[in-house]
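Bit of a strange request maybe. I'm writing a small parser for structure token strings and I need a real example to test against, not something I typed by hand. Could someone generate the tokens for this chain?
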Amino acid sequence: MAAASCAAARSGFKFIDPVFRGVYRGKAAHADDFTAMMDRASSVGVEKIMVTGGSLQDSRAALELARTDDRLYCTVGCHPTRCGEFDKAASPQQYLDDLRKLIQDGGDKVVALGELGLDYDRLHFCDKETQLKYFEMQFQLAESTRLPLFLHSRNAHADFIALMRKYHGKYSGGVVHSFTGDAAEIPDMLELGLHVGINGCSLKTPDNVAAMKTIPRDKLMIETDAPWCEIRSTHAGRKHVKTSFPSKKKERFEAGQCVKSRNEPCHIINVLEVMAGERSEDAAELAAAMHQNTMRTFFPSL
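Reply from user aminoacidic:
Good idea to test on real output. This should exercise your parser:
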């Protein structure tokens, strides 16, 4: 199986995280290895990367980064745990208008609205009422821009699906990324025409894997959500991982090697290996199908 067939396009990557510049919790631990990391991604066939925005500020940074490399694109939106920023702005409408202007200024580099949705696992960051209010408000952008959605749902399925149904027809498809729910949730997403994004966090337990296996191939997408969600030795399906990359702890950083426990785009090959192994499918064929799904949803003009 040729590497170029494995992961030609992918969704969901927090490339603006400072760890990709060698900075951890505000302290420099090693040299900037951004270029080497991009090269490793290309080595396994990654052609396009979506840099996700989680707030107005993050979205600006994501767009700025996307403009530096033809392989990079971005999303613009407000993550559920950051929705309190709407109330801290001059006005919630001004915050929304600033997101809209950023989308307009970004042109073809902005390929999705998001990351937006609901997260009831982390209500200590933003309460439920605020999340619901500003998730719903962002559907105004979905309707006016017709961008596909890059969605987040954590322990909030009923409310999430209720809003997605309410505004069905006012958005242009999308993906529920980093899916960690159970198999019972998937039919609701498929009914709305949504894709489901799979990464290491989606493959932790036997139940996670069983849910992934129920998703039709034409509704699957693959991602890393780096620097998080690596596939660990304790994860269900780990036995299917065949590809490894030399790595060192950040304290013993070595140029040209991965940083241990820092997930990065090249590790998408491991997600593919687990998915294909558990589904008993040819990895190259599965990758090609997910590539087509991603291109059709986020890059329809290419």
